[in-house]
Amino acid sequence: MTDPHFGYIAASYGIAFAVIAGLILWTALDQRAQRRALAELEARSGRRRSGEGLRP
Amino acid sequence: MALLSAVTSLANPSRFAAFAERLTPWLIGVTAVVFAVALYLALVVAPADYQQGETVRIMFIHVPSAWLAMFAYTLMAIASLGVLIWRHPIADVSAKAAAPLGAAFTFLALATGSLWGKPMWGTWWVWDARLTSFLILFIMYLGLMALRSAIEEPSRAAKACAILTLVGSVNIPIIKFSVDWWNTLHQPASVIRAGRPTMDPSILWPLLIAAVAFTLLFTTLHLVGMRTELLRRRARTLRLTAAASAPSALAAEPAE
Q1: Alpha helix segments (H runs only) across chain B
Q2: Looking at CA atoms only, how far is residue B142 from chain A in angstroms?
Q3: CB contact B145 to A (< 8 Å)
Q4: For B142-185, what is each residue's pLDDT tens digit?
């Protein structure tokens, strides 16, 4: 690709990669944090889980 | 009938979370494959445009991002009706999980639009109706997230956010038809329009595949986000229950 506007194209794909990677990372880390928090709370309270789907 | 019963059973948060957990690995796999195909089509197969040259490749991320930015808000508006009319907890979970995703795709559409505009229009930004209404959409997303984090009680936050979302939904048709109603630097619709798309199939197909890839990504992240929100709410309930039972537990302890 020897287009004179290569920089704009590369920057667009670079920003898209950064935003999407950031979203995926944030989503995964948030879920991990909530799973841990819930597991800790359930262990502390000695409660059984209310539903299969909300297993931490 | 069986399908309807299966769908309505997902209204139960635990059943929905179990369904989301089972579906997520499959969605991740399909999304990765479709994204790889979309990137190959966008960067290798699609030809350069006869007027724009290689710059047209920005369209393959700009247009799907813009579509998803509006789709996410429309989803939130429908969920807001679910919150206000049926007071359904899953509706609020859906609206809350969609907001940061919608904000991210709106930002991406604005940023890539600006990077496309500079070489094609000679400017990074103009205050025309399409660009301005899209910037308002971004501000609406940020405002909704700020409002939600400012109200501690989830049911009050859900109601306030649902009302604000519905008020802001008037912006969606304005974004869509701004290029028809006003004289804008932004081009009119070339895919979703009355009549056939104005684009050549060699560029249209890669764009549609890219749109499917972005939509799959949104669906996957939204499902995971909804499940995370259900976990957060369950943890909050446990914390409140523990806090409420703490004084009675203390009272039950024998005095020294």
Answers
A1: 2-9, 13-40, 59-81, 89-121, 129-150, 154-168, 171-181, 201-252
A2: 16
A3: no
A4: 999 999 999 988 899 999 999 999 999 999 999 998 888 877 77
Q: Which residues of chain B lie closer than 8 angstroms to A45, CB-CB?
A: 238, 241-242
What is the spatial distance between Cα B69 and Cα B109, in angstroms, rounded to a whole number? 8
Residues B91/B97/B102/B104 CA torsion (nearest 10 deg):
180
C-beta atoms of B238 and A54 within 8 A? no
CB–CB of B179/B186 below 8 Å? yes
Set of chain A residues whose Cβ sits within 8 Å of the Cβ of B55: 3, 5, 8-9
Contacts of A44 in chain B (CB under 8 A): 242
Q: Kindly report, residue by residue over B67-118, the tens digit of the pLDDT.
A: 999 999 999 999 999 999 998 889 999 999 999 999 999 999 999 999 999 9
